[in-house]
Specification:
This protein has 14 helices and 15 strands. Helix content is 44%, strand content 15%. It has three domains: 258 residues, HUPs (Rossmann fold), CATH 3.40.50.620; 133 residues, Isoleucyl-tRNA Synthetase, Domain 1 (Orthogonal Bundle), CATH 1.10.730.10; 50 residues. By secondary structure, it is of the alpha/beta class. Strands 5, 6, 7, 8 and 9 form a five-stranded mixed β-sheet that branches. The chain has a four-stranded parallel β-sheet with strand order 4-3-10-11, sandwiched between helices.
Amino acid sequence: MLRFYNSLTRKKEDFIPIIKGKVSLYTCGPTVYDTAHIGNFRTFLFEDFLKRVLLARGFEVYHVMNITDVDDKTIQKSVAEGKPLSEITEYYTNLFKQDLSSLKIIPADVYPAATEHVDAMIQMIEQLIEKNHAYVTKDGSVFFSIDSYKNYGALTRLNMDKMQHSDRVSTDEYSLDNPQDFALWKAYKDEDGEVFWESPWGKGRPGWHMECSAMSMEYLGDHFDIHCGGVDNKFPHHENEIAQSVCAVNTPFVNYWLHSEFLLVDGGKMSKSIGNYYCVSDLLEKGMTSEEIRYNFLSAHYQTKVNFTLEKQHEAKRSIHRIMELQSRLNEIDSDLCNDFPLEVEQFNDALENNLDSPKALAVFFDWIRRINISMDEKTLSNKEASKGLKFISYFDSIYGILPKTDSVPQGVLDLSKEREGARQNKDWEKSDELRDQISGMGWMVKDTNDGPKLTPK
């Protein structure tokens, strides 16, 4: 039985999907006004990990990730650069999807863009007005009345009786110290430039919180299984999503809310001014592989802060090398996969099923690696055990995605390896050693086997 920590109830709960064997999953996607940074991808990788675990446990997952292509930030970027909103958002959406691919993140089934679903948002706002949960202001904006929803604040444990809130707020992000009626629809202002839609209240645009409610419910229904995001989304975004969604359709909205913690860099927040602000492309340019990035982010529990440093590349490289080296050794004994697993896979699954306890799962896996290597050194490992081991490694990588494919070896390394093999055949040992050192300097180790050279990351 899978168990998740539900942010709404603040306790671990057995995961029971609404429809047996199927999971409806919504994850908050990027606001496409800039390149997503690695703090964003800490959350996206956690969501990929969750999805991979669900798939591994036999669930059919329907995954929706929205693209926020209209909000305060995207409009400001469009106006500042003097470019159409669509040109700005299309550019950064494409960059985001390239980064997803680079990090081997399984694509969502659909990436709905907010600008393509404004009609659904208008309809939902009309429902809230009709039910007296929202009101129209003189300028044609529409606000949600938080006083109309008695459970407002349940996700973030706000004690509304002890808090005094002001009338309303039109900005998308604000502090939970001062709960306020929030904008469902924002009346057009000159600074919006060419960005507006017609509505029953005049021209304007939807509020950010409304976008996710309308799109998630359009694709997953009024009531679905799992909603994910970073802890920074809890308030006001997710709190407001719950309020407006429940009030619009009078049904529960989401059963399980899962939130990942912040990513720290060099012990603090990322900042361009101090030079520790990274995007995925920055790390790749610095020589990290996508597998090393995945290992660094997934080795910590999703509910704990991760402190990322560039030096952690070496730890990730060593860990990945240990797995690949064992895989190579097992293949030399028996390269056929069987249907059985070693006994340790049960402990591995138990850890994952207990609220995605990645550190414990990794501990089980690497302890198994240590023991299997001892058996191989002592020549006591049978062909069947070797085959089971290969099956375990394959299963492990289906969840973590940290083993590079053979064709991911850089062409330059392959060329040097081929040249070195020619030198060995000519018994030019000095040249062979020189080429081995060059390959090592590029981050790869070459091992000579009866089947030819084997390349693995250092």
